[in-house]
Fold this sequence. Notes:
With 207 residues, the chain is α/β, with parallel strands linked by helices. Helix content is 36%, strand content 22%. The chain has a single domain (3-206), classed as Alpha-Beta Barrel (TIM Barrel), CATH 3.20.20.70. 42% of the residues are buried.
Amino acid sequence: MTRIKICGITNFDDARSAINMGVDAIGFVFAESPRQISPEIAGNIIDRLPPIISRVGVFVDKPVEEVVEIALKCHLTYVQLHGNESIEYMNQLMYPAVKSFRIKDESDLEKVIKYQSKYVLLDSYVADQPGGTGETFDWAVANRAKAFSHVILSGGLNPENITDALDAVQPYGVDVSSGIEASPGKKDKEMMQKFIEEVRAWDSRQN
């Protein structure tokens, strides 16, 4: 089964809807973004979630101590790093982490290989935007990255293109945010349901 993560959650209603629809993980953005959430609000939402759901915090170049503090306070399952965090930074973190890479072209594979992370999230490169761009990238690069890590595919995914993305990459997981929104930080329930249904229908065809 393809893992599904809904990112950019800012309220309990969207989190509950995503869980009821069968997602595997939900994400909270603790970096500057239209979807940014405070640790206090995120913690209140997480306290009401079933423990089987993975809780992921998105960070961009924050000090290690601050990331760990928020992760422990909010009972995060993983932290997702969207900045220029080094391998040394990740070793200091001592917390389950997923490194995100913004992909411009095939040369960016070198970064994926260098980090040797078990899980990587591949997103689209847009200058001055660490994520949530709504833009896709060359999925052939993501397909090649599977030789080195478990790939979580992100970047411009939506209910209309997710089947093509799955056909092209067959990733470990998919991560969607802006592609299922009514407005930044507010999910469109019908779009979210359609996205999840498309992924599960694709899964069914593979078995």
